[in-house]
Amino acid sequence: MAMRDLTTVLDATWFAADLTTGATGRLAALGSLADFAEGTIVVREGEVCESLGVVVSGRIALRLRLPGGQDRTILTVHPGDVFGWSAVLPQPIATSTGVAVMPTTAVLFDGNRLKLALAADCDLAAAIYGRLLVSVARRLTATRVQLLDLYRPGNEPW
Q1: What are the residues whose beta carbons fall under 8 Å from the beta carbon of 42, sequence distance 6 or more?
Q2: What is the DSSP letter of 66?
Q3: Pairwise CA distance, residues 60 & 97, whole Å
Q4: Which of 158, 21, 142 is nearest to 78 (CA)?
Q5: Pairing status of strand 97-100 against strand 31-36
Q6: Do 39 and 99 contact (CB within 8 A), yes or no?
Q7: For every residue of the chain, which 3-state class applies, written as one string?
Q8: In the structure, how many helices (H) and strands (E) does the chain have?
Q9: What gap in Å lies between CA 73 and CA 98, rounded to an integer?
Q10: What does the radius of gyration of the chain's CA atoms come to, in whole angstroms?
């Protein structure tokens, strides 16, 4: 896909919507579109997370491994949401398993290339890390709401 088209795709997501034109272009130059069939594992808990992704269409369930070998969906990410943010960490180990729950398209950014670009471009780094923090905060809020629902009075889980 041409970089101009990828810029348009990114602009349509909350993740990149208000980036400057220059920042979006520099980010688009690092990305590529990927299609995932339903059931495709896009990132695996405990393994090296090689790419950061932004969902364009479809949904990805984030699952945690529970004792006994079962996986439990803790959150589903939707268009505009990020998955694989561990790819930009110094130790890029995935904290959950991401599975496409329907045909999904995402913009993928190679973690190593993205980290190098962010280290070399402070303006881009400030914009991207800020958005990643928003993504993490959104997930914490969603998890908190789930826990409040689980532990509300009269709904004792034990």
Answers
A1: 36, 53, 60, 83, 84, 98, 99, 100, 104, 106
A2: P
A3: 10
A4: 142
A5: unpaired
A6: yes
A7: CCHHHHHHHHHCCCCCCCCCHHHHHHHHCCEEEEEECCCCEEECCCCECCEEEEEEECCEEEEEECCCCCEEEEEEECCCCEECHHHHCCCCECCCEEEECCCEEEEEEEHHHHHHHHHHCHHHHHHHHHHHHHHHHHHHHHHHHHHHHHCCCCCCCC
A8: 4, 8
A9: 9
A10: 16
Torsion from C-alpha of 58, 62, 66, 71, nearest 10 degrees: 10
Contact by Cβ (8 Å): 46, 97: no
| pTM exceeding the 0.85 threshold for the entire prediction | yes
10-residue averages of pLDDT along the chain (158 residues): 78 90 93 97 96 97 86 88 94 95 97 96 93 89 73 57
Length of the chain (residues): 158
- Single out the residue of 52, 57, 62 nearest to residue 103, CA to CA: 57
**Which amino acid makes up residue 30?**
L
pLDDT at 154: 60
